[in-house]
Structure formats: structure tokens, C-alpha cells
Design goal:
Blueprint lengths: L2 H16 L21 H14 L18 H14 L1
Helix pairs in contact: 1-2, 1-3
Protein name: Carrier domain-containing protein
């Protein structure tokens, strides 16, 4: 699975679940934390979705820092590392 496909999936989830279909434009470089779009509760929902959707058993505590969730691109990179590690 390519990073582009992962990115599209993440954008779709954020639009459907967080933005509830509002017309906000998101790109891979969209700042999620600095913009206030992501809060701790939504990060937990996003993690649960990613683990279920991509069959990731457990994301390491070492990867649970804000830099990995700052943008859609950094989240896609994180998911990509776990998928490729299988």
C-alpha cells in the first residue's frame, strides 16, 4: 500500500469523523495539532481506526509523540512504517 493511499484514507477519516463532512480542505501538509483540529480524544479515535483498518497490533510507546501526529503526512509515514514492518 502506498503512502498516497494511506494519506487519502486518513484524510477521509478525519473529514468524516472529526469534521463531519464540513468543507474544510485538507492536504498531506495540513497542520493538525497546531491548528487545533486534533485533540487527545480524537487522537485515540484515530489510533483505534488506524490499528483496525491497517491491522496494526500495537503502536509502540516510542512512536506516541506529537511529531508523529503533527500532519497527515507524518501520520501516513507512521502507518507506512508499521505496514512495511509486517
Amino acid at each position: 500500500m502506498s503512502l498516497d493511499e494511506i494519506t487519502v484514507t486518513i484524510i477521509g477519516f478525519i473529514k468524516d469523523e472529526l469534521l463531519e463532512g464540513k468543507g474544510v480542505v485538507l492536504s498531506p501538509a495540513s497542520e493538525l495539532i497546531d491548528s487545533g483540529l486534533l485533540n487527545s480524544m480524537f487522537v485515540i479515535r484515530l489510533l483505534a481506526f488506524l490499528q483496525d483498518h491497517y491491522q496494526i497490533e500495537d503502536i509502540s510507546n516510542n512512536d506516541m509523540h506529537l511529531e508523529n501526529f503533527r500532519t497527515i503526512s507524518t501520520i501516513a509515514d507512521l502507518v507506512g512504517r508499521y505496514i512495511n514492518a509486517k
